[in-house]
Specification:
The protein contains 11 helices and 11 strands. The N and C termini lie far apart (about 50 Å). The protein has helices spanning about 15-25, 40-50, 65-75, 90-100, 130-135, 140-145, 180-185, 195-205, 230-250, 250-270, 275-290, and strands at about 5-10, 30-35, 55, 80, 85, 105-115, 125, 165, 170, 175, 210-220. It has 2 domains: about 5-125 and about 160-225, Spore Coat Polysaccharide Biosynthesis Protein SpsA, Chain A, CATH 3.90.550; about 230-290. The longest helix is centred in the C-terminal third of the chain and has 21 residues, at about 250-270. The mean pLDDT is about 95. Strands 1, 2, 3, 4, 5, 6, 8, 10 and 11 form a 9-stranded mixed beta sheet that branches. A two-stranded antiparallel sheet has the order 7-9.
Amino acid sequence: MSVTLCIVIVSYNVRDRLRDCLRGISGQRVIVVDNASSDSSAAMVRSEFPAIELIANTDNRGFAAACNQGITASKEDFIFILNPDTLVTPAALQTLLEAIRAEPRAGACGPRIINPDGSLQPSCRRFPTLPRLLLDEFGLGKLFPHSKLFGGYRMTWWAHDQLREVDQLMGAALLLRRAALEQVGTFDERFFMYFEEVDLCLRLHAAGWKVLFVPEAQVVHHGGQSARQVLTEATLYRYRSLGAFYRKQYPAWHLVVLKMAIGVAVMMRLAVYSFQPAKRAAFGAILRNLWSL
């Protein structure tokens, strides 16, 4: 019985990156879900890639909901969630498929993600427990990236060079097994953007599925192309999604402690980035909305 694959790409105002991405995955079944881009992304897909299935939303439904639209429209055994600002080779796709098929209890797997200059873009993390996030919010992971304690959340101590089971993978390039999704459900649409893949990976682990990191497969990721256009809004979405994740997964007092720590950490960042207006605006928005996150 042949194994089937569908690639689901959620796009928002990254027309040129999307074009480059689609050129590299010709020959695959692809569903593009466009979240009401204003840069003619949907028109570009229609005119230049007529064989690709396009779902053009009339409003921005968010990343999780748009992914679910693509998953629902697909019928294949495996679904590859892929950001439009990535470059993927057929060999990388094949390597990921071989890895997930070789481990029947693997519900998800992901590649080694690299920056356009060839450097590593860390894509594995531990689950964001309160101790790990407190260390991360105060920048100790950046100060001591090779420490398993201080760099534990983002796993910066690890070279990302071995096949291994991990807690969570970046959603920029995430291969999912349909049978696992049928058991645990698709992305939780309470997460407009950010933390939707963290929540899904946690549910996979809870149900006995494995999440695998496959370094032999490499994907180039430009990173943050949509978020940079709306930095303040994207930063707020990240912290709102973090709050939603904590309300769903952890005791209520964890979120109270975390919010207090975030407030102190953000005030420290405001001092550090005093001459960067965009970052000051983003951090200021967090402080103003801290207790509603």
